[in-house]
Description:
Elements: H1 9-31, H2 34-41, H3 45-52, H4 55-66, H5 69-77, H6 83-100, H7 102-110, H8 112-118, H9 126-143, H10 151-168, H11 181-194, H12 198-203
Amino acid sequence: MIATKTASPEETRSRILSAAREVIARKGKRGATTREIAEVAGVNEGTLFRHFGSKSALIVAVVQHVCGVVELRDVVAQLRGPVELDLLAVGRTMLERMEAQKDIIRWSLVEAEYDKDVFSSTAWRPQLAIHDVMVELMQRYVGRGELYGDPKQLAALFMGIIFVHVVARGKFPDSDFNEDAERALRFYIDVFLNGVRASRAEKA
């Protein structure tokens, strides 16, 4: 149904983004059509194209809209240490955002080949923007002598731990971490900072 009341451009854009995410979550990027997205948003297809130009641009906008880089930057800007508490705050934010984006993560993995065409543009930067924030944070710790190693690799490792928890934890139904994300996060940070060598436990 086409909306009858006048909406602001911002409201219309937001409605289209929400509709696109809903349709893509059900049908994937390939199966989602701009016609159905427009119908769910309550606008005509021409309005959709006036706001986003193309289906590919709309998909990029959807991911950018929900990636959470602004929230992550806000959290990082307020960090004051120690490193364990900093990473806990960052980890909570990343975990919450990834949990809310499981549908996007799922279709991004399933339709990886499609991504090569849609996201070849330099405009596609959400995951890289988040990585850049984490690299800056790791550089801060390395510069202060609290961590050692390549900040880019450290950032990728930390992000990967959270990513795997969100995507794969359902594959291990007996894991205590399925019901206690906070406990899982504290364990991951402990391993990230200290490792798991038996000699470490002996010294404790």
